[in-house]
Specification:
alpha/beta, Rossmann fold, 9-stranded mixed sheet, 19 strands, 17% strand
């Protein structure tokens, strides 16, 4: 048992009194804790920090990854190297709670570690691991790599997070009033609760589901009998599960199962809510799908001197401080790439997870036009981000961009894409480039933290951008035709380059007063609604209560 009286170092605010367990496969709480890969982790980390600031009755349930996602290093020729290194955390507390799950017909021990709320100013966190005494090497490896490429291990990871997380809460005496599942990774927790209560109807009001992606890869499906073999359904009756989930052709859809069993669900932007309802709307017996737009924790991300200048409307101070922040980023560029960037030169940054639909190489696809742009000594461009370690197509894009950068002293491709570097990139950019395929970016959060720190968004009209951007605070590409992928990409590319050449560069150099006013407008517009305090409050008001 864990003493609830010492779990929270603050008096819980009355409006947030309902107890919640927040399940996520990744959390970016701090640079030193390698339990994240990208956007979902950054979002969850900001949410947990706002829980602390608002004094909410919420705990986080995650996985303790022995090797994390991966470390982004360079080979001898400086191309991308995927490297795995063991991580040890002295600041995590062993709860001494150990229990067994049955996975693939074998008992697997699960140990649980506690991150106290005061350590980094977050919700109290509990991390589960199978890398513990008594387990086989295979069982230990379940918690080795975030998003393991092997199907059995990946399913087992979801079982540890879901079945294991629910069982831990029961053993620890921390059973919440609300179970909040972020993506369907932890959906197996539902089957533990179902078996315990002997009724799906009894638990439905306690279950909340957030879908974070419209991408097929983010909505997993598996053979029902394979999941049964893995023990995915715990002690729940598999025939009852199959009937309740509407399993067809022996295919179990994890996201659909969550939508059929939870009281309420949400997308993570207004547009994504609409897309989600279109995706799932023809399915019978699903719950209501609302939306709560993602946000980032201002307290963690914002440079204090920029914020003070924003409050005073002091564009001169913002501009001066921005040049200092650019110098910090450029020191990293010099260290990694051997290139000396100029803080007086307009600097564009592309920084996010490398994935096909995000199109990291979009503006380089017309190589002749791109090279003409780069021969202009009034622009600098930096790319950074992590491809999935076994997405060889994305790795190839990363490396092609890197090899292209050899030809341009004003172009750099950086590694070590983690919280520390991400802060440098957001703080040191004049423009953040964001060009996903429209309606395929659920929300995106990179542009939020960039705008908070005096960077202007250059973006396609997708995700959170639809609720933020207009011609006064961003540069927005017209929505390209969607019926032809090749034409769509070509149109988006041309529109992005047109904006850079015909609007961004002229305004930055010829109309600095207008530029500085746009920067200030962007900072003001992102100020309240896109702070995770609003988001964490909204989850209580719209989803939990």
């Amino acid at each position: 048992m864990i003493d609830k009286n010492i779990l929270f170092p603050y008096k819980i605010s009355p409006e947030y009194n309902k107890s919640v367990a927040y399940f996520s496969m990744e959390f970016a709480i701090d640079q030193s804790l390698k339990t994240y890969s990208g956007g979902l982790g950054f979002l969850a980390g900001s949410h947990m920090r706002s829980v602390f600031d608002l004094k909410q009755n919420l705990i986080g349930i995650g996985m303790l990854w022995k090797f994390g996602y991966y470390e982004q290093r360079r080979k001898a020729d400086n191309s991308l190297q995927v490297f795995f290194r063991e991580h040890i955390y002295s600041f995590l507390e062993d709860t001494k709670i150990r229990f067994q799950l049955v996975i693939k017909n074998q008992p697997v021990w699960v140990a649980v570690y506690h991150l106290p709320a005061n350590t980094f100013g977050s919700a109290p966190m509990f991390f589960l691991t199978t890398d513990t005494d008594g387990n086989s090497e295979w069982a230990r490896s379940i918690s080795y790599h975030l998003y393991d490429k092997e199907m059995e291990l990946k399913v087992a990871q979801g079982m540890v997070l879901g079945l294991g997380g629910a069982k831990f809460l029961e053993i620890a005496g921390l059973e919440p009033e609300i179970y909040h599942f972020n993506e369907a990774h932890a959906v197996s927790a539902i089957f533990h609760l179902w078996a315990k209560e002997k009724s799906l109807a009894k638990i439905k009001d306690r279950l909340i589901f957030t879908t974070h992606t419209p991408e097929e890869a983010g909505n997993e499906k598996h053979d029902f009998h394979f999941l049964q073999y893995m023990g995915f359904f715990g002690d729940a009756n598999p025939h009852e599960v199959a009937e309740a989930m509407g399993v067809k052709n022996n295919i179990f859809n994890h996201s659909l199962a969550a939508l059929k069993t939870c009281r309420k669900a949400n997308g993570v932007s207004k547009l994504h809510g609409e897309v989600s309802r279109q995706m799932w709307g023809n399915e019978p017996d699903i719950c209501e799908i609302d939306h709560i737009t993602n946000a980032q924790n201002r307290k963690y991300w914002v440079v204090e001197t920029l914020e003070k200048a924003r409050l005073k409307g002091d564009t001169k101070k913002i501009s001066e401080r921005k040049k200092e922040l650019k110098k910090r980023l450029f020191a990293e560029v010099a260290d990694q790439a051997g290139k000396l960037f100029d803080p007086e030169v307009l600097t564009i940054v592309w920084a996010r997870r490398f994935a096909g639909y995000k199109r990291p190489d979009l503006i380089t696809r017309d190589i002749e036009r791109f090279e003409r742009l780069m021969r202009n000594n009034k622009i600098q461009i930096i790319w950074a981000g992590k491809p999935y370690p076994f997405d060889f197509s994305a790795i190839d894009i990363f490396n092609r961009l890197f090899y292209t950068s050899h030809h341009h002293p004003n172009m750099a491709v950086l590694t070590w894409y983690e919280l520390k570097l991400l802060k440098l990139l957001k703080n040191g950019s004049d423009v953040l480039l964001n060009n996903p395929v429209v309606k395929r970016e659920a929300s995106g959060t990179s542009g939020m933290t960039a705008a908070m720190n005096a960077s202007i968004n250059l973006t396609t009209f997708d995700g959170w951008v639809c609720e933020f951007s207009d011609d006064t605070n961003s540069f927005i590409a017209p929505v390209a035709p969607a019926h032809n992928d090749q034409l769509r990409d070509k149109t988006d590319m041309e529109n992005m380059l047109d904006l850079i050449e015909n609007k961004i560069l002229p305004m930055y150099y010829n109309s600095p007063a207008d530029w500085n006013q746009m920067v200030l407008k962007s900072m003001n517009d992102v100020n309240v609604f896109f702070d995770s305090d609003r988001m964490a409050d909204e989850y209580y008001k719209k989803m939990y209560n």
